[in-house]
Write a structure and sequence with these properties.
The protein has about 290 residues and is an alpha+beta fold. About 20% of the residues lie in helices and about 35% in strands. It has seven helices and ten strands. The chain has a ten-stranded antiparallel beta sheet. The chain is globular.
Length: about 290
């Protein structure tokens, strides 16, 4: 079996150094659609170094990569075909606001392995700290088609109830034709997002947008519309990747305020495909 759950869970955590600069932050922000309109003062907080703040979802690529997914697939006990891999979900906990430039230590391990029958789900956890203490914790849920069925733990089966009533805000965000090509420059070079032939082997009609790009676009929309543009208010952010997005499509982002605890429930769909789901079970916790 390509996945040895016991070996993966028992493996020693791997640690490595991360560093990033304002340029990395700006590139990431452009990769999730910032800078439109280019001279808008609110957008300049994402693009101009003298005003720069950091969208918390930058944590998923800090250090030039997609550390939860890529490092998770290289852990002991895991040997899978990349064409069978999908990013199933992502959760992020912020311990304090991200600095514009930084150097930190990332410690990665497999926190759980679930047997879903026709697939396996790996939970790759990355904890990041700098000289001042913990910065963030990332959990990537990695879905591996065809690798289940060994009789292991099926994992959590409960899902939150969908939001009720009319959303408090609805915004639409167009995805550029070259969005995946721009986003991948932040470090996730999976050919699924750029190579048409690889995408066909993986079962898609053409390259798809990174799930984490949709993740970033969505968080920016929530921050800009319901959190007063204040990235420091975000405490945690989690989602399940419910469907694919193709570059050139339009995201419809519905938001519902939640008072206790303070949070925003979010649903993201694709306008051009009759509101086909893109992100589900999405929650942004905030101060």
């Amino acid at each position: 079996m390509p996945i040895d759950a016991a070996k993966a869970l028992a493996a020693e955590p791997r640690s490595g150094e991360l560093s990033w600069t304002a340029k990395d932050v700006q590139l990431y922000h452009l990769g999730v659609g910032a800078g439109v309109p280019a001279t808008d003062p609110d957008e300049l907080r994402y693009t101009l170094e003298s005003r720069l703040h950091v969208l918390p979802s930058f944590a998923t690529v800090a250090g030039a990569g997609s550390p939860g997914v890529i490092s998770g697939l290289s852990m002991p006990g895991i040997d899978v075909d990349l064409a069978k891999v999908l990013h199933g979900g992502q959760s992020l906990t912020l311990h304090r606001p991200l600095p514009v430039e930084g150097r930190a230590t990332a410690t990665a391990r497999i926190a759980a392995v679930y047997d879903k029958g026709k697939a396996a789900v790996l939970v790759a956890r990355t904890e990041v700290a700098d000289a001042d203490g913990p910065l963030w914790t990332n959990d990537a849920q990695i879905f591996v088609r065809g690798e289940g069925g060994w009789g292991g733990d099926r994992g959590p089966s409960t899902r939150p109830e969908p939001p009720v009533g009319e959303p408090d805000r609805v915004v639409e965000r167009p995805v550029r034709e070259d969005q995946a090509l721009l986003y991948r420059l932040s470090g996730d070079f999976n050919p699924l997002h750029a190579d048409p032939e690889f995408a066909k082997v993986a079962g898609f009609e053409r390259p798809i947008l990174h799930g984490l790009c949709t993740y970033g676009i969505t968080l920016k929309a929530v921050v800009d519309t319901l959190l007063g543009g204040d990235v420091a208010r975000v405490r945690a952010y989690g989602t399940r990747f419910a469907g694919v997005v193709y570059p050139g499509e339009t995201l419809r982002i519905r938001m519902w305020r939640q008072d206790s605890p303070a949070a925003v429930r979010v649903a993201v769909t694709v306008v051009e495909r009759d509101d086909a789901p893109a992100l589900a079970d999405t929650l942004v916790e905030h101060s």
